[in-house]
Design brief:
By secondary structure, this protein is of the alpha+beta class. It has seven helices and 15 strands. Strands 5, 6, 7, 8, 9, 12, 13, 14 and 15 form a nine-stranded mixed beta sheet that branches. Strands 1-4-2-3 form a four-stranded antiparallel beta sheet, with no helix packed on it. A two-stranded antiparallel ribbon has the order 10-11. α1 packs across α2.
Length: 325
């Protein structure tokens, strides 16, 4: 991988494969970040553009730059765009342990087990909620991208609990709007390391992709607004059981915010949890569960609420914490 600042005009290159594009930076983009300029010039997402820069696939006037470097109007930009990704398809695959909490003509509410993604995605080869519903013969809304039709919100692969999927087109439109306008009450249960101070509080800190660790997220100054409310339910010697309400729904939001407080979810090794504590409690994933989901039904308009009890592995970990206390 070419490093930022390296001169590629004298013997270097931007790597192999993909489509090499060369053109001047428009004057209208003068002064903006390199990743933002690439995103706007080539129709990429900001994340995809940042990844290209981090991988040394972009140069300005013959030199590799960092993603936050500013561009100048007229500077010569070279970018090697990645080959088009292979299309992601939904494979109907039964998923053991995936329960149905509710089902009607508009929605289906599932109780998602850990290890299952909401929908297919590049690089993920495991089971998905959409694939499981397809295998069970459920008709899902056709709105949205082909691989995520009917999906109006997501849970992390390692997070269990209640998740709603739209079956009708009207339900998809109304639920997407409800989630976007924060009209859905999402309650989680989490066991975190230590004891937060204060024991009830709010984390209001913007989050976005981690600047150095691909696949993870972090609190960053220019991230998306993210607000998490938490309350202590039960304190143990080395951990705390919290009830958490999300005001926003960013990717990995609870995990990032709890880690930022230095109280990561127990078992969440990616975000700094103690592996010895996880092993002692028999956990192979983060202690995080989507326990309750409330919203106005997109069909009849009345309020509905769905709950999911703690699954066996999380309940067992809590019992071990009580015994240790």
């Amino acid at each position: 991988m070419t490093r930022a600042g390296e001169d590629v005009s004298a013997g270097g290159d931007l790597g192999a494969g993909g489509d090499l594009r060369s053109l001047p930076v428009p004057d209208g983009l003068d002064g903006i970040r390199l990743d933002a300029a690439i995103a706007r010039m080539f129709g990429l997402s900001r994340t995809a553009a940042a990844t290209l820069v981090d991988d040394g696939q972009a140069s300005l006037d013959g030199r590799i730059r960092g993603r936050s470097d500013r561009v100048s109007g007229g500077a010569w930009l070279e970018v090697r765009l990645p080959a088009p990704p292979r299309p992601v398809t939904v494979e109907p695959t039964p998923v053991a342990g995936l329960g149905i909490l509710y089902d009607d003509d508009d929605i289906v509410v599932v109780d998602k087990p850990p290890g299952v993604a909401a929908h297919p995605a590049p690089g993920f080869t495991g089971p998905t909620v959409i694939g499981a519903l397809a295998a069970a013969g459920y008709r899902i809304s056709t709105s949205g991208a082909a691989e995520r039709q009917g999906v109006v919100h997501r849970l992390d692969v390692g997070t269990s609990g209640a998740m709603v999927v739209a079956k009708s087109e009207r339900a998809y439109t109304l639920l997407k709007r409800a989630f976007r306008e924060r009209q859905v009450d999402k309650r989680y249960r989490a066991v975190v390391q230590g004891h937060p101070d204060p024991l009830s509080g709010t984390v209001d800190a913007p989050t976005d992709r981690h600047p150095r660790r691909p696949g993870l997220f972090a609190v960053v100054a220019d991230g998306k607004p993210s607000v998490t409310h938490y309350d202590l339910v039960e304190a143990f010697r080395s951990a705390s059981l919290l009830s958490i309400r999300l005001e926003t729904g960013r990717t990995h939001q609870i995990r990032v915010h709890m880690s930022a407080l230095r109280h990561p979810c127990v078992g969440d090794l990616a975000y700094g949890a103690d592996p010895t504590l996880a092993e002692r409690l028999g956990l192979t994933r983060q202690w995080l569960h989507a326990a309750r989901l409330s919203f106005d039904h997109p069909g009849h308009g009345g309020p509905v609420e769905f709950t999911s009890p703690d699954p066996a592995d999380l309940a067992e970990a809590v019992e071990r914490l009580r015994e240790q206390a």
